[in-house]
Amino acid sequence: xxxxxxxxxxxxxxxxxxxxxxxxxxxxxxxxxxxxxxxxxxxxxxxxxxxxxxxxxxxxxxxxxxxxxxxxxxxxxxxxxxxxxxxxxxxxxxxxxxxxxxxxxxxxxxxxxxxxxxxxxxxxxxxxxxxxxxxxxxxxxxxxxxxxxxxxxxxxxxxxxxxxxxxxxxxxxxxxxxxxxxxxxxxxxxxxxxxxxxxxxxxxxxxxxxxxxxxxxxxxxxxxxxxxxxxxxxxxxxxxxxxxxxxxxxxxxxxxxxxxxxxxxxxxxxxxxxxxxxxxxxxxxxxxxxxxxxxxxxxxxxxxxxxxxxxxxxxxxxxxxxxxxxxxxxxxxxxxxxxxxxxxxxxxxxxxxx
Length: 354
Prior knowledge:
Elements: H1 3-14, H2 23-33, E1 39-42, E2 48-52, E3 59-65, E4 70-76, E5 82-87, E6 99-104, E7 107-114, H3 123-127, E8 136-138, H4 144-150, E9 156-159, E10 164-165, E11 170-173, H5 176-192, E12 200-206, H6 214-223, E13 227-235, H7 244-247, E14 257-260, H8 266-278, E15 284-287, H9 296-300, E16 307-315, E17 323-326, H10 327-343
Parallel strand pairs: 3-12, 3-13, 13-16, 14-15
Antiparallel strand pairs: 1-2, 2-12, 4-5, 4-9, 6-7, 6-9, 7-8, 10-11, 11-17, 14-16
């Protein structure tokens, strides 16, 4: 990966923006893509739209979500410890001793998730799973009064972690879900820059996916696209204890994932397969027997219906401080999306022909 692309990816995954607090992410995304599009729009829910050729046809919405899972401050006790509420899906076992950032009106404050040390636990306590309401965030405050001077109820809290290169073109980060998708979206817009094509492209950096695909729901209604493609991470089966009979045969570095199932328009899926074959882009196939856990489920049923696709980025250790992916999968996903956009014509039929 080129150094400039790596630095943009690093900025995105190390930034902070849980659901409802995506403003900083949107500023980074806007700064990156603005030279490559005709206009930028934002909506009242917090999503951002980067638009090319708005008068073109068909109208294509490309979506990735800006928000990360996180927390909000719920209670500050008399000793100055913060107790938080989850925003999105967390495994409490991975939180203890993780560094966090509390975003306050006065600026960011570092902290750490705390729990009673194992040395101080009795035998019964050691056997029990951690309970979320019994872990806390320690910011080093002397007492509750000092903590309340700095931190307000409702302040967002996110994990603090860096982008780390690994062996064989792999990397670790805290928010590949879904800053990896945002990177692919930005890279797609970069690849389309200077190219001529008939379609209108709306690149949507969507807010609030992690709490119910809200940003995509509002954006799709506003854009009213013919085609919508979501870009999000998806589980792999190439590490211990993951059952391929449940996940499918999915590996890091084997190409982006094309999802099939009732949430996916068969014509969009076939076109993506054709583009991948023509451009010699490796892809993997994964199924979803119902609604996908992505913005694709909102895109599909917007207004009178949208021909929907889903491109997955293979990911290990989802919703953790050390999510892992292959950088080549990001570059191949962007090449596939750009090729798809350039393949679309105004007279393509995306409705059911019977």
